[in-house]
Amino acid sequence: MFELFGIPSTALFGQLLVGLINGSFYALLSLGLAVIFGMLNIINFAHGAQYMMGAFAAYLLLDYFDIGYWLALVLAPIIVGAIGIAIERLFLQWLYRLDHLYGLLLTFGLALIIEGAFRQRFGSSGLPYGVPDYLRGVQNLGFMFLPNYRAWVILFSVVVCFGAWLVIERTKLGAYLRAATENPTLVRAFGINVPRMIMLTYGFGAALAALAGVLAAPIYNVSPQMGSELIIVVFAVVVIGGMGSILGAILTGFGLGIIEGLTKVFFPEASNTVIFVIMAIVLVIRPAGLFGRGA
Amino acid sequence: MVAKHVAVPAQRARRNGIAIAFAVMAAVLVVGPLPPLSLYPVDLMRALCLALFACAFNLLIGYGGLLSFGHAMFFGWAAYVAAHLAKVGAVSLPFWTGAWNWIVIPLPPLTPELAILAGAAFAGVLGVIAGSLAIRRQGIYFAMITLALAQMMYFFALQVKFTGGEDGIQAVPRGRLFGVIDLADNMAMYVFVAAVFLAAFALIYRIVHSPFGEVLKAIRENEPRAISLGYKTERYKLLAFVLSATLAGLAGATKAVAIGLASLSDVQWQMSGEVVLMTLVGGLGTIFGPVVGAAIIVAMQTQLVSFGQWVTIIQGAIFVTCVLLFRRGVVGELAALLRIRL
Description:
The structure holds 2 protein chains of 2 kinds. By secondary structure, chain A is mainly alpha-helical. Chain A contains 11 helices and 4 strands. Chain A has one domain: ABC transporter involved in vitamin B12 uptake, BtuC (Orthogonal Bundle). In chain A, 71% of the residues lie in helices and 3% in strands. In chain A, strands 1-2 form a two-stranded antiparallel sheet. In chain A, strands 3-4 form a two-stranded antiparallel sheet. In chain A, a hairpin with a 2-residue loop joins β1 and β2. Chain B is built from 13 helices and 4 strands. In chain B, β1 and β2 form a beta hairpin. Chain B has a two-stranded antiparallel ribbon. By secondary structure, chain B is mainly α. The chains are: A mainly alpha, B mainly alpha.
């Protein structure tokens, strides 16, 4: 163990790790928001609720069906993705011709319903969800202790983010998606079922949020309000990064997580607000956001 | 640009409609606390303050087309400032002279009208800062920025000492209006709150129907065209934001003095959502909509107070219903039915 800037290395790297974990969730969630916004022109306020539902899905699968973490990592996103598709079919599809703000208001209402219902059923206190057996334990790296599960979360998030970027930027499906974002009418004229693509995109975004929720379940407790607190920070992340670029959303997410972690070490009073302060500074210097292409 | 007002029949009908509606509203305010209705004055005061809050919010969304999802910061912080000044008075400000020092301004506890004005002024200053940041982006980004800034102000409220953290500022004295009239009696306080509400309501009506209000509506409808006509739209939007913030602050400050409490729930994002809901239910861009919406939501909350989380669920369901089926709101639908503007 040694000291850096007068801070014990375990504390410094420990907070850096917490920052990277938070950054993983920011990246996964802002990625989903950006993909949904690109196709649907809707800011999905229910994203936090879908993240929370993912965590609850993992908890309930274990509680009722004795289905463990690894299967939940697959099943929870599928379940929440299906709910997302139902939401798109039932509600969102009627809004595409209206002002964007109605999409925000509708998904805000959905978030209230979902969060209220879970609070009614499960109460406000957190429910514990254990770390899977394979990933218990801690590595001593000399300068810090690295819990295996946390290393897994960071690694897996990076892989998922990179995979999503690869699909969107480098495959034929992604090309259709990007084309439909630019000009849906023209893409439809080529015989591609754009409404179905929009539906699946929303489902995919919701599934991504749920995946983040399952990853978060063993770290934080599973609680109904875990999503609404996070989503406001993610909105600030999205404002900072701009939603024009997938890679931008990912990088901003991880970067801000790290900055937040470091703030906890050097100036703990500001750790809750640092991302909002950065947002204000970015708005002054680069109003379109770091990776944005105009407002 | 300014055409002479020629009162065509449609315009006269519109004015008559508004005059009648205003008379009805004033009559409800007078009759409300008296028998046979005998509504509890404290409930009425809360409803009036929230109605004013919604009217202030509506000035921005209904006439400027700007959806702020962070108006709780003005409402809540003005409540804190007014409550502190009415209860304690003395203000400590940090300043930097090589190290942080505190300068203490030894004020006595202020009279209620001064405390309320100070709270509103604070919200106005906050509005200048938040507004000049938020109007740099449009549409959805505007909503997200205001929400994020409000969350930052929520965390400040949680950390700063004078707000009392989780407890809030309790037992705020109502004091003597202008140092003379004792407001301890509920009816006296109610008359004062109703007067503040009606004055602010008239002011908002005046703003909406002024040349400034017309330009604001033009920006809402087509900003590039307004720019090409030579209007500096940024300035109009900022002024609308500051006016809305100040009036929201007036509502919050009045609430703090009338109810005697400024707490975290006034600055939380749920409060920002609630004011959106009230305005949406009543009717975006209608003068009376926010008042009706506030009345409906407050009545619902009071009725369902024992049902816990069901209030949140029902509020969410109202959001969804309004957006899908009922975008004009109660007053908007009524006005469309009667073919007048309210």
